[in-house]
Structure formats: C-alpha cells, structure tokens
Amino acid sequence: MSVANPKLQTMQLSKRYGDFVALAPTDLVVPEGEFLTLLGPSGSGKTTLLSLIAGLSHPDAGSIHINGIDVTRGQPYERDIGMVFQNYALFPHMTIAENIAFPLRMRKLRARDAAREVERVLEMVRLPHVAQRLPKELSGGQQQRIALARCMVYRPSIILMDEPLGALDKKLRDQMQLEIKRIHRELGTTIVYVTHDQEEAMTMSDRICLMNGGKIEQLGTPQDLYFRPRTPFVADFLGESNLLAATVASVDGDRIGVTLEGLSGHGGVMSNGERFSVGQRIKVMIRPQNMHLVQGAAGAANTLQGSLTDWIVTGGVSKFYMTLANAQPLVVAELTRGVAARHLPGETLTVTWQDGEAVAIPE
C-alpha cells in the first residue's frame, strides 16, 4: 500500500530471541485515521510488532517512523502514542476523573483545562456520571471505557490496543466492539489493535494484518481476507472453510476450470487475484454457507456426494458434517427450517455451489 504521508511506517523491522524469529523483516504502512488489526494465533508475531511500535522493546534491525519521524530508538513517551491494555491499568486509589486527568497532569496542563478535557472524553465514552467514583465501583466494561478515555484525553497520534477486550464476557465484548468502532469513527484517530479473535477483527477493522510464524501472511480489508484469501492458512484461519485439493484444467481470465483430486467432481472456481496455469495443483476454498444440499446424484459440474456423519442445529443455522469419497471432511451450513427433511448418519447427500462462491488458492 502506497501512502504519501503515512501516520505509521515500519521498514524491514525484525526481532529475534536467540534462534527464535519473533518477527521476520516486516514492512507495514498505516495511513492517518485507519483502524488496523494485527490478527493471528499465539506466537504469530503480532504482540512483538505492537511492542516494537510502542517502544516497549527494541528491534534487532529495521526502522519505525511515526508522522515521518524516525522513533526506532526513542523512548515510549517520545512517540506520541497511547496504550490500552487488557487489564485496564487504572489507579485504584484515584477517582475516575483523577485517572483520566493523570496524563494531562504529567504534561503540566492547567487544572481548569484538564477538567474540561476530562469532561469531554467522559461524554465521548458515555460515562459522565462516574467521574467521582473509584475504579472498583465500575463494571469491567465501564473500566475498559475509562481506560480508553484516559488514553484519548491527550489526543495521541496513534492508539495501540493489546487484547483490550480479552477479559470481558462475550455479550459485553460484542457491545464494546461497537463502542470502540463508534469512538474511532467520531475521533478519526489511527488505531493499531491486537487480537486473536477473528470475529472481533472482522467487525472492527478497516484492514486486517494477518500474521503467521513472525510474518505477514496477508494484509487487506476484512472482505479481501474472507472472500479472496491468498494462502490456505488465511482461508483456514479466518472463518470456517472447506479446502479441496484440485488441479487446474483451464484458465479463462478470472474463471478457472478445475478437476478435484480423488473425487469425480469438476467445475469452475474464481481466482483470488493470483495467476494460475493449467496443470497447477491448487486448493479450492468453499465456505460452508456457500454449499447447498440438492436432490439427485453427483455428476454435473460443481456437485459432490458424501456420507453424512453428523447433523447439528445451532439455532438459525444447521450444519451438515460429511465425509467425501477420498475421506476428506466437508461442512455444509444452511438456514434452519422447521419443515426441513430429517437426515440420518450414513445417508448419501449431494451438494452443489456456484462458480463465484469457490476460490482458487495456490497450494
């Protein structure tokens, strides 16, 4: 991504701990006002990258620029950043107003001006009535909003968030996702957010930086990663997917004809943006919700048959777990209907999909 004056930029940034590569040389550009999420499993490098940006650890090589200034060796307080942690980090002996005003006091802002700024951010997080309470008198969600208010009050260039919702229950976490998204939209602040929660990343982000093994696996919008993954890892990590081994039989622009390996199925899929050639071994990704049960035998293009191993109703969605002739598992998800025919384990079912709902991925 090319940006004339990026808010944040890393160039060949890397970090090792002995023989372990925590972060391979990484280039990243974050424009002004973007909500970028660093997503990935444990050990993928996302927290290492965030720590380097924050100045909590120092890289072995590479550089970090904020607002065009090289801060690679600068102290955290010299970087004009704010941090929000999972554990809130509020001072228990101070009132909420005093907690929020603390960074302003450190910057020697006049008391009257500080009070006005505290009032402003409390209104923004919709908690103006808790100013004189202590942190222990607030719920977990309220404390997290106060931690965010304390971070925003001095208007940092970039806000870094490290798993800020990890300690909250699911319902509260869902509410806070929308709250943080609203605040970001109102402020226009640049946010770099770390999580391992796929749904959280999809809900909140302008772009997702999916990391794996200390490297960026794919960087793009949530839609890019979900509908056009570049690698099997991306397809498998983000949401539920069926990955079928196949060989390219024909190429016509973005439409690719394939032969499914170990199966009698054949059909068409769409490119994920990569170039493919006839004879190339690939993976075909089909999301469970894009496969549909049909009557009749397989044989037509984009149809497969499999043996039903289990059928569960999760509420609004029913999931059918199948085993194909080559022993590969397959999942089909359909809307639950009260009058749907009942299926039994061992029954042979036929599934189909549309060309545009299957994506080719280099193996």
From TrEMBL:
> Which cellular component, as a GO term, is one annotated location?
ATP-binding cassette (ABC) transporter complex
**Mind listing the GO biological process terms from this record?**
putrescine transport
Q: Name one GO molecular function term.
A: ATP hydrolysis activity
Mind listing the UniProt keywords for this protein, alphabetically? ATP-binding, Cell inner membrane, Cell membrane, Membrane, Nucleotide-binding, Translocase, Transport
Instruction: Name the catalysed reactions.
Output: ATP + H2O + polyamine-[polyamine-binding protein]Side 1 = ADP + phosphate + polyamineSide 2 + [polyamine-binding protein]Side 1
Supply the NCBIfam families for this chain: potA
What is this protein's function? Answer: Part of the ABC transporter complex PotABCD involved in spermidine/putrescine import. Responsible for energy coupling to the transport system.
Family recorded in the similarity comment: Belongs to the ABC transporter superfamily. Spermidine/putrescine importer (TC 3.A.1.11.1) family.
UniProt name for this protein: Spermidine/putrescine import ATP-binding protein PotA
Recite the lineage of the species. Bacteria, Pseudomonadati, Pseudomonadota, Betaproteobacteria, Burkholderiales
